[in-house]
């Protein structure tokens, strides 16, 4: 099945969904967005990357802010950077590079987003994209990512889930985890207050005691 142009959702929804379903719904269903230190640093980093324009370095051509779309996954967005590496057959192999402000995360959210970019490029250019990289600003480290069958299957699954969630128009209840500490929407979400089964009265009593 292919999606139509009207069905397309932002590529960033994949990363949001893997990070937290509620965050994905708050952003893509309720259109909520709060900037915090982490998102501001990330935004500035992306703006800086996109400003660079085109560049050639030997056998590598670099394109920035590349528009992406996939009707198979139902996604639309932009790649920070796509490097085109000259192959032995004198062709150009695309190699997407995503820039992140932090460090590698324990979950797959960054890899799924990058794989989504690669699958968009494959559909748009009609060629295979076998690997890419994520550059982490805090560690100044470039992590190479192979787009193997398992990562591709996970990316397709996450894309389907993101479509279902956005189509449902409902926002899941919060589940408080350590991710909430870095979430830009924590003040709007209040996961410790509204977590399922949690007593608001008990939360307020405890919060007043801690003041
Ligand atoms: S604060 Fe926690 S539960 Fe709420 S959206 Fe962010 S990560 Fe999800």
Structural account:
- There is one protein chain.
- The protein is α/β, with parallel strands linked by helices.
- It has helices spanning 12-19, 21-28, 37-51, 109-125, 149-168, 186-189, 191-194, 200-210; strands spanning 9-10, 55-57, 60-70, 75-86, 92-100, 131-136, 141-146.
- Strands 1, 2, 3, 4, 5, 6 and 7 form a seven-stranded mixed beta sheet that branches.
- A hairpin with a 5-residue loop joins strand 4 (75-86) and strand 5.
- The termini are far apart.
- Iron/sulfur cluster is lined by residues 20, 22-23, 26, 174-175, 179-180, 183, 185-186, 189, 191.
Gyration radius from CA atoms, angstroms: 19 Å
Give start-end ranges of low-pLDDT stretches. none
CATH class of the largest domain: Alpha Beta
Number of strands: 7
| Amino- and carboxy-terminal Cα gap | 55 Å
H/E topology pattern:
EHHHEEEEHEEHHHH
The CATH topology annotation of the largest domain reads as Lambda Exonuclease, Chain A
On the 0 to 100 scale, the average pLDDT is: 88
Helical content band: 40-55%
Give the helix tally.
Answer: 8
Structural category: alpha/beta
Total tally of structural domains? 2
What would you say the CATH architecture of the largest domain is? Alpha-Beta Complex
State the major sheet. Answer: 7 strands, mixed
């Amino acid at each position: 099945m292919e999606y139509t142009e009207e069905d397309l959702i932002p590529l960033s929804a994949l990363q949001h969904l893997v990070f937290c379903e509620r965050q994905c719904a708050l952003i893509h269903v309720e259109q909520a967005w709060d900037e915090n230190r982490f998102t501001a640093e990330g935004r500035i980093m992306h703006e800086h990357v996109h400003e660079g324009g085109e560049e050639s370095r030997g056998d590598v051509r670099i394109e920035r802010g590349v528009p992406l779309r996939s009707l198979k996954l139902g996604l639309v967005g932009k790649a920070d950077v796509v490097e085109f590496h000259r192959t032995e057959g004198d062709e150009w192999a695309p190699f997407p590079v995503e820039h992140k402000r932090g460090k590698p995360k324990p979950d797959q959210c960054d890899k799924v987003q990058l794989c989504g970019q690669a699958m968009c490029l494959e559909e748009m250019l009609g060629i295979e994209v076998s690997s890419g990289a994520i550059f982490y600003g805090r560690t100044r480290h470039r992590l190479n990512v192979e787009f193997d069958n398992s990562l591709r299957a996970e990316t397709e699954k996450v894309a389907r889930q993101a479509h279902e969630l956005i189509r449902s128009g409902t926002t899941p209840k919060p589940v408080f985890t350590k991710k909430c500490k870095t979430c830009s929407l924590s003040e709007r979400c209040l996961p410790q207050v509204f977590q399922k089964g949690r007593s608001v009265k008990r939360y307020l009593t405890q919060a007043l005691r801690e003041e």
